[in-house]
Amino acid sequence: MNKIIKITVGLKERSYDIITGQGILSNASEYLAPFVKGRKCLLLTDSNVGPLYAEKVAEMLIAAGAEAFTFPFQAGEENKTLETVGGICSHAVKCGLDRSSLIIALGGGVCGDIAGFAAAIYMRGINFIQIPTTLLAAVDSSVGGKTGADLPEGKNLIGAFWQPKLVLMDPEVFATLPLKEIRCGLAEVVKYGVIMDAPLFAKLEENTDKLNAVDLEFYTEIIARCCELKAKVVAADEREGGLRAILNYGHTFGHAVELVSNFTLAHGEGVAVGMNMAAELAVQAGLLDRAVAVRQRKLLEKLALPCTLPPGGDPEQIYTGMLKDKKKVGSRLNLIIPLDIGKVEIKSGFEPADIIKAIRCCCE
Ligand SMILES: NC(=O)c1ccc[n+]([C@@H]2O[C@H](COP(=O)([O-])OP(=O)(O)OC[C@H]3O[C@@H](n4cnc5c(N)ncnc54)[C@H](O)[C@@H]3O)[C@@H](O)[C@H]2O)c1
Ligand SMILES: [Zn+2]
User: Fold this and answer.
1) Mean pLDDT, the chain, as a whole number?
2) Nearest ligand, CA of residue 251?
């Protein structure tokens, strides 16, 4: 019997459990029943995940006593739009979903974000459940209640805070997940170690072989720890008034890196480069030992994540890209700066020239 781990996100009346364990999808009806029995459920999934897992999950919903409908959408960030959200809501009307019904997200972060957003606005808000199928969704997007969609003007510009009722995570779905997606999720896992958990970071360093071999038992343990850390941050700061910003470590640099690379670098890859840039800035400002920055870089490299800007990348362009980040307060750039493994600080007031110098040090 595989180990099942339960983590509670403590948000008073909005509290919910994250349940993870290998093979948990085969027993999902047991966990789903208290929420879905006697109700209509719209199972939202993308065109890659649907053919692999939707039937199994639909069977589990039916076994749990629900009436299940499926809505597949075309996979990809370019479909994280209001149009897709509108399509979900129209389909929900057609299936007769009412205020007591649920939306179930089966997929990666794109699916979770738009399913959650549709749930937040359909009939002014109905319940939803997350079944993440990427590592990034498991350790990051499925926890914390940020939902939304992109606009032609930029990513995640519309959305709502809407917490799920349950998160069910079966690492066995990683068997079909492309390795590049696993690596992108690992960048976020490393991020948790750097921002708030030195023992986790050390564990990752000692087990890069298990991480690279996608050892599911080890992944279950790591996912649970990351969810626990995110749950702690979210419980302390549900709507990102302060502490929650530390989860953006490496992201202000990273988003700009993604943009300047014309999205040839994926999000997790941009974040890996961004964490190196943030550490370099910290070293140059005398806030971080060089040895610690090297430790971070070595771990990322062992996980085959990029640490530098690809050739042709322009540091000034990255800086300009960073100024567009919506995490900016007024004209100041708020950056998450590492002080040690397991410890970061939110700092503003860096000179543009110093930021550009740090970026330049992370160019190939
Ligand atoms: N809400 C939040 O707090 C939060 C946090 C971080 C990221 N996000 C959002 O998450 C999104 C990125 O999420 P993602 O990286 O999961 O992307 P994604 O949902 O696009 O999934 C990546 C790819 O993997 C495929 N896939 C998913 N699971 C699979 C499986 N088990 N087997 C085979 N293929 C599978 C998908 O079809 C897709 O092609 C972005 O839109 C980002 O803005 C949200
Ligand atoms: Zn991220």
Assistant:
1) 95
2) 2
pLDDT computed for residue 330 by the predictor: 62
Note down the domain range covering 217: 179-361
Write out the catalytic residue numbers.
124, 146, 188, 230, 240, 244, 248, 251, 255, 267
pLDDT per residue as tens digits for the range 305-323: 999 998 888 999 999 999 9
Q: Label residue 34 by pLDDT band (50, 70, 90).
A: very high
Domain count, the chain: 2
Distance CA 105, CA 204 (A): 29
Q: How does strand 127-132 pair with strand 102-107? A: parallel
Q: What are residue 27's phi and psi, to 5 degrees? A: -115, 20
Claim to verify: residue 164 and residue 191 sit in the same structural domain: no
Q: Percent of the chain having pLDDT more than 70?
A: 98
Statement to judge: residues 306 and 318 lie in one domain: yes
Task: Output the domain CATH number for residue 296.
Answer: 1.20.1090.10
Nearest CA to ligand 1 atom 14: 109
159 shares a domain with 222: no
- 278 CB-near residues (< 8 Å, 6+ apart): 249, 250, 253, 335, 336, 337, 338, 358
Pocket test for ligand 1, best of 45, 49, 174 (most atoms within 8 A of CB): 49
**How far apart are the C-alpha atoms of 109 and 55, rounded to whole Å?**
20
Distance CA 211, CA 218 (A): 8
User: Six-digit token pair at 240?
Assistant: 């990102």
Q: The whole model's pTM is what?
A: 0.96
Domain stop point among 176, 197, 216: 176
Q: Does the CB atom of residue 177 touch ligand 1 within 6 A?
A: yes
Regarding whether 256 and 159 lie in a shared domain, the answer is no
Cα–Cα distances (Å) from 310 to 164, 260, 264, 328, in that order, read 38, 10, 10, 25
Which residues have C-beta within 8 Å of that of residue 274, sequence separation ≥ 6? 250, 251, 252, 253, 254, 255, 256, 257
